[in-house]
Write a structure and sequence with these properties.
This protein is α/β, with parallel strands linked by helices and about 400 residues long. The chain has helices at about 35-50, 75-90, 105-115, 130, 135-145, 180-190, 215-225, 235-245, 260-270, 315-325, 345-355, 365-375, 390-395, 400-405; strands at about 15-20, 55-60, 95-100, 120, 150, 175, 205-210, 230, 275, 280-285, 295, 305-310, 330, 360-365, 385. It has 14 helices and 15 strands. α1 crosses α2 and α8 (about 235-245) packs across α9 (about 260-270). Bound molecules: adenosine monophosphate. Adenosine monophosphate binds near residues 215, 309, 333 and 368.
Length: about 400
């Protein structure tokens, strides 16, 4: 069932409380923003609300202040950046105020003073332990600031916190912001959750990588029933290869997941899913940027003291061919230790292959694969880059995200 959208609501002259994800990285002392991507991502929703003449109250968390005020985690530096970004986006000066507390008399008074087309940013929600505890009284206090509630913070939608879940019990309607809508739309369609034409276009290819099988089991299990091909690279591939009987030297292996890996291989076969594992590897004699490296091809045992830190060229070619033939691609997790240039080729090649398939719907989620896509300079060529690492992973696992579930369903 689709969720209510901010576009379905009357916002004019209303106090609109919008949960946003302004959890931006700051300099050590907390005085400056080092990357404002998260603010930029939510700008279209803010712009829309202001165009509709809302009295816009923005609420977010930042870092882990552990339920106490802490200047290092103040959202105050966001005010100036938001003014500048809005200036650029809208072409007129927007009044952006700041409330030093997200609840209480000060927040209430400042929001009363707010005029249509103005913005009030509330201080870090997590300065109150009640936010993460999803305390109903705290949620009610937040709700008392507004007539309309909008959630645009997909990145925290997998957490049932007061500002993402609790508050929805104290407002008449809870709507998705434009970013939230986009996230649910792309990820939902990939999983076949959309209504009507919502099924993913086939062939559907999923690429999973990263360090551990244990982090991705849920995703593998959920996707096996949906995809035509599953390409596995990165550290997690070596548990699978060992489960198939290949000795993988000092490569990353989760011994307690060998049975599970074997089970997944059997399941893929039974369901007719092509499960592609690396067929050649960049081996290193140690985990270091200047390690000695060697290409290893085939199903024979690796030399005992060496470890695989990237996929090799034959694997890249096989993966790229699958990706080129896909109509839907979902990618989560790097193909190797891409932080080190010597082991980045596999991840870069996969990023390029995904970007090159312009006929497909391509979705990239998870911090590391997003970083890889950006590093490779192909971000603009991907249909959707998810802003929520943990949230997108849980979504792909088929879990219900409390912040999404809590939104009001759209009636016909
Ligand atoms: P994840 O957070 O599970 O997506 O894992 C990302 C991390 O996996 C990155 O820091 C990579 O360096 C690491 N990684 C990818 N491939 C390998 C590999 N073959 N061996 C060890 N670590 C890897």
């Amino acid at each position: 069932m689709p969720k209510l959208s901010i576009r379905d609501l009357e916002l004019k002259n209303k106090h609109v409380l919008m949960r946003v994800d302004f959890n931006v990285p700051l300099t050590e002392d907390g005085s400056e923003i080092t990357d404002d991507t998260r603010i930029r991502e939510t700008l279209p929703t803010i712009h829309y609300a202001l165009e509709q003449r809302a009295k816009l109250i923005l609420a977010s968390h930042l870092g882990r202040p552990k339920g106490k005020p802490n200047a290092k985690y103040s959202l105050r530096p966001v005010v100036d950046r938001l003014r500048i970004l809005l200036d650029h986006a809208i072409g007129e000066r927007i009044n952006v105020g700041f409330s030093p507390d997200c609840i209480g008399e000060i927040a209430a008074e400042l929001s009363r003073q707010l005029e249509s087309g103005q913005v009030l940013l509330l201080e870090n929600l997590r300065f109150h332990p009640e936010e993460e505890a999803n305390d109903p009284e705290f949620a009610a206090k937040l709700a008392s600031l507004c007539e309309v509630y909008v959630n645009d913070a997909f990145g925290t939608a997998h957490r049932a916190h007061a500002s993402t879940e609790g508050i929805t019990h104290h407002v008449r309607e809870a709507a998705a912001g434009l970013l939230m809508e986009k996230e649910i739309g792309y990820l939902g369609r990939a999983l076949g959750l959309g209504a009507g034409d919502g099924a993913p276009a086939k062939p559907f290819v999923a690429i999973l990588g990263g360090a551990k099988v244990s982090d991705k089991i849920g995703v593998i299990e959920n996707l096996l029933g949906k995809v035509d091909a599953l390409l596995i690279g990165g550290g997690m591939a070596y548990t699978f290869l060992k489960a198939k009987g290949q000795e993988v030297g000092k490569s990353l292996v989760e011994l307690d997941k060998l049975d599970l890996a074997a089970e997944m291989i059997a399941k893929a076969e039974k369901q007719g899913v092509r499960l592609l594992l690396p067929i050649d590897h960049v081996l290193a004699d140690r985990f270091a940027p200047d390690a000695k490296t060697e290409l290893f091809s085939g199903t024979g045992d690796f030399p005992e003291d060496w470890m695989a830190l990237d996929i090799g060229p034959e694997t890249i070619a096989a993966f790229a061919a699958e990706i080129a033939g896909a109509a839907t691609v979902v990618w989560n997790g790097p193909m190797g230790v891409f932080e080190l240039p010597a082991f980045a080729a596999g991840t870069t090649a996969v990023a390029e292959a995904v970007a090159a398939n312009q006929g497909a719907t391509t979705v990239v989620g998870g911090g590391d694969s997003v970083a890889a896509v950006q590093q490779t300079g192909v971000a603009a060529m991907i249909s959707h880059i998810s802003t929520g690492g943990g949230a997108s992973l849980e979504f792909l696992e088929g879990k219900k995200l409390p912040g999404v579930e809590a939104l009001t369903e759209k009636t016909a």
